Amino acid sequence: MPPASDEVDAATWQRLHEAACEAMEAAYAPYSHFRVGAAALVDDGRLVSGCNVENAGYGVTLCAECGLVSDLVRGGGGRIVAFACVDGDRKPCAPCGRCRQLLFEHSTPRTLLAMPSGIMTMDEVLPGGFGRGDLESVTGADPA
Ligand code: THU
Questions:
Q1: Count of CB atoms within 10 A of residue 50's CB?
Q2: How far is the C-alpha of 24 from the C-alpha of 72, rounded, in Å?
Q3: Order of strands, edge to edge, in the sheet holding 118-121?
Q4: Residue 123 burial class via C-beta count within 10 angstroms: exposed 0-12, middle 13-18, buried 19 and up
Q5: Which of 37, 41, 47, 60 is the most exposed place for a label (fewest CB within 10 A)?
Q6: Phi (first) and psi of residue 10, to 5 degrees
């Protein structure tokens, strides 16, 4: 079994870093030349990843996290335990605001993220985030 969310060991972070770097190498970023790779450990032990895919219509560019979330859902879903993102220099890259929301949907408050400033929880990276509970409280619908 993978480690609990607050017990991700150094070897796991190294694996995530390598997977994110491998994804970054596949990035399609001919416009910004800013390559990004992201990788995450899922609560069933799977490792998912993605890279940024730019477009001549700049606004429809897909961030690396979009590909990661697609990989996660396509592979059966689950909760993200730990997440790492790198830039073209293989350094930690902060997820943009939209991607924090994308990740929030598939995380727990204790999900860990390797940020440029160090390891942070999802709760710290997106405090007070909007989630399914906010919808349920108004519509009463259970989306599960
Ligand atoms: N980018 C990501 O892939 N993820 C982020 O969270 C931040 C930005 C990409 C989008 C674009 O291809 C490039 O980085 C420059 O913004």
A1: 27
A2: 17
A3: 47-51, 37-42, 80-86, 112-115, 118-121
A4: middle
A5: 60
A6: -60, -35
Mutate to test the pocket of ligand 1, among 36, 66, 70, 100 (most ligand atoms within 8 A of CB): 36
Considering only CA atoms, which of 14, 65, 59 is closest in space to residue 37?
65
Any ligand 1 atom below 6 A from CB of 32: yes
Instruction: Write the pLDDT tens digit of every residue in 23-67.
Output: 999 999 999 999 999 999 999 999 999 999 999 999 999 999 999
Token pair, residue 12, equals: 């796991």
- DSSP letter string over 91-124? -B-PPPHHHHHHHHHT--TT-EEEETTEEEEHHH
Q: What tokens were used for 61?
A: 């560019």
User: To the nearest whole number, what is the mean pLDDT of the chain?
Assistant: 95
Ligand 1: which of 69, 96, 113, 125 to mutate, judged by most atoms within 8 Å of the beta carbon? 96
Neighbours of 82 (CB within 10 A): 26
Beta-carbon count within 10 A of 25 CB: 11
pLDDT attached to residue 1: 45
